[in-house]
Amino acid sequence: MVDTLLLAGIFVFLIVIFVLSLQLSKTAGEVPKLITGVGIILCVIQFFTQVKKLRAGVYETVESEGITQQTLAWYWNLLLIAVFIICLMLLGFIISTFLYLLLVPYLMDYKRWKVNIVFSAVTTSLLYYSFDKFFNVRLPPGLLLSKLF
Amino acid sequence: MDTLISALTLAMSAQNLGFLFLGCAVGLIVGVLPGLGPVFGVSLFLPLTFSLPVDSALILLAAIYAATAYGDGITSILLNVPGGPSGVAVTFDGYPLTQKGKAGIALGALAGSAFFGDLIGILALVTIAPILADFSLELGPSEYFMLTMFGLSMVAVIGRGRGQAVRGLILGALGLVISFMGQDIITGQLRFTFGWEYLEDGVPFVSASIGLFALAQALILGEEGGSIAGESVLVTKPWSGVVAAIRYWYVTIRSAITGVFLSMCPGIGITTASLLSYFVETRLSKDHESYGKGNVRGVIAPQAASNAVTAGELIPALSLGIPSGATSAIFIAALTLHGLRPGLEFFTSGGVRVYAVFVGMFLAAITFFLAGMLLTPLFARVTKLANAILVPVIIILCLIGCFALRNRVEDLVICTVFGVIGYFLFKYKWPVQCIVLGLVLGSLAEKNFHRALQISDGSYTIFVTRPMSLTLLVIIIVIMSWTYLSDPIKRLGTAKKTSEA
Q1: What ipTM did this prediction achieve?
Q2: Do residue A78 and residue A139 come from a single domain?
Q3: pLDDT tens-digit profile of B262-294?
Q4: Helix B249-263 and helix B297-312, axial crossing angle in degrees, nearest 10
Q5: Measured between CA atoms, how close is B73 to chain A, in angstroms?
Q6: Range of the domain at A6
Q7: Distance from B451 to chain A by nearest Cα, in Å?
Q8: What is each CA distance from B84 to B29, B114, B291, in whole angstroms?
C-alpha cells in the first residue's frame, strides 16, 4: 500500500512538472518535458507490474524486524526534528541541541540520566566549539535570546 | 636527482611536516562530519595560507583535500552516513560489511584503496599531466553530454542488478527533474520553483544527499533500536582490508584511472567519479549480484577513484590553469595569492618548490593511511554504541552540516524532506542511488546538450558526427541493450540447448 502511494506521489509530481514545463520556452522546457514524459510512462508500467504481482500474491511486504527495545517511530523522530529546527531558530544552537540530545535518548528508553546529561553537555560543547570557533561557522544564536540580551 | 633530493628535503622540513599533519587531521575531522566535504575544508583554510610559503600552503591544502576524501568514507562504512557527497558510493557495500561485523576489513580496504588511489593520482599528476590535460581539452559539449548519458545509463544497470529496472529508471528521472529546478542555465528562465524564492538557486545537492542517505538512515536506526553491529562480534582486521585492496589490484588501478580521467573533465567532480567507478565495477564484475550486499570491491572502487580525483583535479589546474572543480579552483586561487601563475610558468619559476608539493602530497597519503589504520579499531567500536545515543548525534550533525554550508534554514527543511523520502525508499527497497545519479548529472547533461545544439545550429547530428561522441553513444547503447537483453538471450540459448538435447 505504502509502496503504491510512493509511486503515486512520484507520478503526481512528474505530472505537475510536465504541465509546468509546457509553459516554458522551448530551450528551458525541452529536456524536462522529455524526462517527465518518460518518467510518467515508466510510472504507469510500474503500476501495472505492482498490480500484477499483487494479484499473483508474490508482492513483497515490509515486515517489522521485531525489535521492541529502545526504538522511536519515524514520525516521532520527524516531529522532533521539526521542533528542533524551530527551537534552533528561536533558542539558538546551544540550548536546543542540549535539550534535543537529552530528550531523544530518553524517548528511546535509554534512561541512564547521569550518562545522558554528561553526554548531552559534552557533545553540545564539542560541536559548538568545533563549528563556531574552529570551523568559523556562525551557528544560530536564537532570535529570542539575541533580542533579550 | 638533485632536484628530487632538494624537494624531499624541503617537503620534510619541520614546518612542512607540521602543516602536513595539521592538514591530515583537519581533513579527517571534516571528512567524518556529515555534509562537510573537501570544498568546505580546503576553502576554510585558504585564508590561513596567505602568510605561508607557497610549498607549505599547497601541501596543507592538498593534505586536507586527500584526507577529507578518505574521511568521507569512514562514516559511510560505520553508520551508512556519508561524511560528504563523495562518500555516498562507499555506503552501498561498506555498510552491509559493517552489519556483517566486518567493519575493520571495510575500513582497511577504504584506507588501502584511498592510499593507492592517491598514489596513482599523484603519479598521473607528475608524469602524464600535460598529455592528458591536452586530451581533456578535446572534449566538447557533445562529448560531455554523452559522458553524462553514460553515467545516467548506469541507472538502468543498478536497477537491473537489483531486479528493479523500472523503479531505478523512475528514480533516475525523478533525480533529473529535481536537478532541473531553479534558474535555467541557458535562458535564465525560472523553472519549477512553485513561487519559492529559495528554489531559484536549485535544490542543493549536498542537503538533498545528506537527507536521502544520512537522515533517512538515522530514522531507520531510530526504529530499529539496539546498536548497528548488534550482537555480532566486531572483526577488526584492517590489514586484511588493505590486502584486499592489493589482491583486487585491477579494481584499484581501474577505478583510480577512471578517477584521474574524470577529474580532468570540468564539472564532473569527486562525487560523480566515485559513483561512476562503483557502477562501472558492478557492471564489469562477474558476480555483480553480490554488490550492495557487502562486497569489499564495492568499497575499493569508489574510494580509489575519489582519492585519485584529489590529485587528478590538479592536473589541468596546475598545468593549464583550468579548474575542473571547486576545490582545484581554490588551489589556483592559492597559487595566484602567492604570485604564481598556473601553467608553464608554475613549473619553470616554481623550481624545486613544485616538486616539494608533489612529495608533500605523497607524504600526506602515507600519513592519512597510517592514521586511518591506527584508528580503525576505535572507529569500529562506534557500531557497538546504542542507537539511542547515535541517532540524535547523527541527526544534529546532518542538520548542522547542512546549515554550515550556506547558513540557510531552508537547507535544513530540504534535508528533512529528502530524509523522509529516503526513509520510504530504503524501507521499500527502491534503488535510492539512482536518484542521486540523476541529481548529480542532471544540470551537467542539460547544459551540455543545449551547448552542443547551439554549436550545431540546432542539429542533433552533432552527437553522432564527432568520433568521440559517437564512440560513447555506441558504448551506451551496448550497455543498455546488454542490461535488458542479456537475460532473454541467455534464456533463448538455454531453451535451444534443451530442445537439442
Answers
A1: 0.91
A2: yes
A3: 877 766 678 888 888 888 888 788 777 788 888
A4: 40
A5: 20
A6: 2-56
A7: 11
A8: 11, 15, 21
